[in-house]
Write a structure and sequence with these properties.
The protein is built from ten helices and ten strands. It is α/β, with parallel strands linked by helices. The protein is globular, with a radius of gyration of 19 Å.
């Protein structure tokens, strides 16, 4: 589906230097907070699930969950809401990483939702981001899950900045930003009525730079598309989109083979690449340190077209 590049980058290839002591202290404080949140959810809820896209944030979230319960296994499954519009490298990494960790994978398929008539695709090859909402809600209901961990961070986007760590969703799975529970002194209210759900965001207080520094400190492996590689792309609506079966070049567009990387992974029909020579973690950290636009604002077409796009989707039940 996507142009082939290389296999996922081994942790040993990152070349990351040992973090400074102050940095380690900051990261370990964020880690301790996230581990505490994850354990609170395991203690308060009956059937949690961890949402995993095989993106950098969910990879960090999975590592934190593993740390939270060592030496025991993670006591809840991992769910991937699969749009069917994935980068090949990401799916290969997902399957291998979860198998290595002994995790139980639940795949919620957007294509299955389309086939069942639960959602309707706008057009062949169109973004399926909005379609994920119905697929996610159906999968949560089918699994009886009352809490779902997500890797969202408050610095990503203005709607996500409105989220609490424990974000209650009503019986229809919907979110109302005007009715958020206070969380003074990091006290999390896990009470829900029958049919309600809680979305939990242990990385709320992290930044993109924190995530990458944690990846360096932990030596975490990522899908190879996070690092600079050569790929055929076209420039469309101010973004560099990968040329693939789903995103062929349009009449008048010039296919270029450029050295690029991805700051975020998602539906490949709307996820743009950035020009980059960053082939290891240290180089990515240096690159992010000078960035002035968030990863979603720079590389997700659906978030750039409307300031309210994410909030609208979240109100409907999106994660």
């Amino acid at each position: 589906m996507s142009a082939a590049t290389t296999a996922a980058v081994p942790a040993a290839r990152t070349g990351a230097a040992h973090p400074a002591p102050a940095l380690v202290d900051d990261l370990r404080a964020l880690e301790a907070e996230a581990v505490h949140i994850i354990r609170e959810v395991a203690a308060e809820f009956e059937r949690p699930v961890l949402l995993f896209s095989a993106g950098k944030d969910s990879i960090v979230l999975l590592r934190l969950a593993e740390k939270a319960f060592r030496p025991s296994p993670v006591p809840f499954p991992v769910m991937h809401v699969d749009t069917g519009h994935n980068f090949d490298e990401v799916i290969e990494f997902r399957d291998r990483r979860l198998a290595q960790g002994g995790h139980r994978l639940v795949v919620a398929s957007v294509q299955a939702s389309i086939d069942a008539g639960r959602v309707r695709e706008d057009a062949p090859g169109a973004s399926r981001n909005r379609l994920q909402t119905r697929t996610l809600l159906d999968a949560l209901a089918e699994g009886g899950f009352d809490a779902a961990f997500g890797g969202a961070r408050r610095d990503e986007e203005r709607a996500r900045a409105k989220e609490r760590v424990f974000s209650v969703r009503d019986a229809a799975g919907q979110w109302d930003p005007r009715h958020q529970r206070p969380e003074p002194w990091s006290l999390y209210n896990g009470r829900v009525h029958r049919g309600e759900q809680v979305r939990v965001f242990p990385l709320s207080n992290w930044t993109e730079l924190d995530v990458w520094r944690y990846i360096a400190a932990e030596g975490l492996e990522l899908p190879s598309i996070y690092y600079a590689h050569e790929r055929d792309v076209v420039e469309r609506d101010g973004m560099l989109l990968a040329v693939s079966d789903l995103t062929p070049a349009r009449p008048g567009e010039r296919v270029q083979r450029l050295r690029v990387r991805y700051r975020t992974v998602g539906d490949l029909t709307i996820t743009g690449a950035v020009r980059s020579d960053a082939t290891d973690v240290d180089a990515v950290i240096a690159e992010i340190g000078t960035a002035t636009v968030s990863e979603r604002g720079a590389t997700r077409a659906d978030d750039r077209t409307s300031a309210a796009a994410m909030e609208d989707r979240k109100r409907e039940g999106y994660f």
